[in-house]
Amino acid sequence: MDFTLGLFLAVVLSGLIWLVDLLFLRKKRPAEARESVVVEYARSFFPVLLIVFLIRAFLFEPFQIPSGSMIPTLRVGDFVLVNKFQWGLRLPLIHTPITQGSPVEAGDVMVFRYPKNPRVDYIKRVIGLPGDTIEVKGDALYINNKLVPQKFIGAFNYKPEGQGAEGMVIPTKEYEQELGGHKFHIIEFDTPEAQMNFGPYKVPPHSYFMMGDDRDNSNDSRFWGVVPARNIVGKAMFVWFSWNAEDWSIRWKQIGRSLDGAS
Predict the structure, then answer these.
(1) Which residues are tagged catalytic?
(2) Looking at the chain, which runs of residues are DSSP E strands?
(3) What confidence tens digit (pLDDT) does each residue in 69-78 have?
(4) Stated pTM of the model
């Protein structure tokens, strides 16, 4: 079950139990009698559940990075805080916009409901805005026929996460790009076979073209299309915790990293 739906049902159920007791059962209960355990728990947990639900639905939501497609910016085991109101508030569960909010910018890191399966949340970087024309030629990215410049940082010791200590290290280069005032790092395999061409493709209205920072190892808009505005969950703001499950350690350097600046 979807966590938000489960939390909503818990709020409704505890609230109903408390309300029924308040309006009907309490009047019939002798003054010296104690309320039932069920009512006691409902009365105690309802305010807490309601506050958590409202914060998660309208303000902030935690999100755990499920894959390595955003390396080097984000790694598997990173927990990020997602801003739910900056791009406009949406009603929980039905996702209907109720406020406009500020516009999405190229370079933002977005959490969204995967268009092929809206029950699954993805996280990628916004590359193309509505009306933009996107084209990829090998390791070169073009937006509206203009090459997005990238600054070479150096070799990157890349090993696909989840392969353990024996995983194969792939020759990879790290670059810095800038979009919409956001500076960030990307990585690309240093092998011609990994390069691919895409486009040109014009982003439809009310949609966004997404790519991972791990450019040659990302399942993104080059393969399944754009993200409709109705699928937006929120803007990823910073890493609040980072856990490396492969060696059971905390990645202290990741904690507190803002996703609005340079990597």
Answers:
(1) 69, 124
(2) 60-64, 78-83, 109-113, 121-128, 133-137, 140-143, 146-147, 150-158, 170-179, 182-189, 198-202, 207-211, 227-228, 232-244, 249-250
(3) 999 999 999 9
(4) 0.88
